[in-house]
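Propose amino acids for all 227 sites.
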């Protein structure tokens, strides 16, 4: 067994199917059906990724995600029956790494779990990137600006690390989707916009005098910094 997946889902049938498929793929699982039990469990146990339903008794998925992001960058995949773009964006803005709309294929969920975990634990030869005030360690996944740690989600770190390895390159949304979220990601390109927005906000709080990520109209994004 490897990688502990926490399933937060109030529908027993869905949770049971997810457990079966994940365990068949050599993941350890734990199921919680009430949102009010999630925060304490995460704080007291080693969890590698959460599959988090939005509609839950107790705390809902949005509230849980917001609380977890106050103390952890643990990968979170939202499970939602809501299909409106605004609902997906809210989840991403709160720090979720991915979302899956119900009804879904259990095989798709396993593929997304693998993709998000790969982003959280990448295999990259060059382990240190230093650009101006920014220092990224690709092994420990620690980001520092002017020597102070910057708390990033796995997706935010992946975007920054990808762009930092090619600081003069303009990345299209689709290119960032493929490189950071994986070729098997079936979402939409606004996902990258939301992650970029969150990343910019965190960087700006640390160095307000410098615009690090520049939008190239009609193309995508570029890292506006050199070593």
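Proposal:
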């Amino acid at each position: 067994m490897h990688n502990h997946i926490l399933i937060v889902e109030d529908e027993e049938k869905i949770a049971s199917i997810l457990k079966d498929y994940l365990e068949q793929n050599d993941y350890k699982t734990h199921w919680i059906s009430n949102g009010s039990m999630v925060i304490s469990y995460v704080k007291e146990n080693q969890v590698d990724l959460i599959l988090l339903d939005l509609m839950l008794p107790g705390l809902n998925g949005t509230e849980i995600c917001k609380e977890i992001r106050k103390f952890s960058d643990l990968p979170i995949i939202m499970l939602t029956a809501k299909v409106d773009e605004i609902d997906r964006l809210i989840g991403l803005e709160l720090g979720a790494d991915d979302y899956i709309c119900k009804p879904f294929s259990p095989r798709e969920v396993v593929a997304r779990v693998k993709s998000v975990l790969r982003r959280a634990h990448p295999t990259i030869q060059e382990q240190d990137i230093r650009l101006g005030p920014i220092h990224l360690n690709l092994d420990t996944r620690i980001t520092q600006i002017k020597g102070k740690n910057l708390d990033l989600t796995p997706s935010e770190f992946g975007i920054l690390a990808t762009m930092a390895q090619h600081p003069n390159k303009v990345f299209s949304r689709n290119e960032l989707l493929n490189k950071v979220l994986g070729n098997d990601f079936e979402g939409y390109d606004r996902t990258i916009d939301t992650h970029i927005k969150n990343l910019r906000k965190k960087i700006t709080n640390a160095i307000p005098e410098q615009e690090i990520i520049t939008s190239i109209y009609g193309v995508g994004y570029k890292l506006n910094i050199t070593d």
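The chain has a mean pLDDT of 84. The chain has two domains: 2-120, 128-223.
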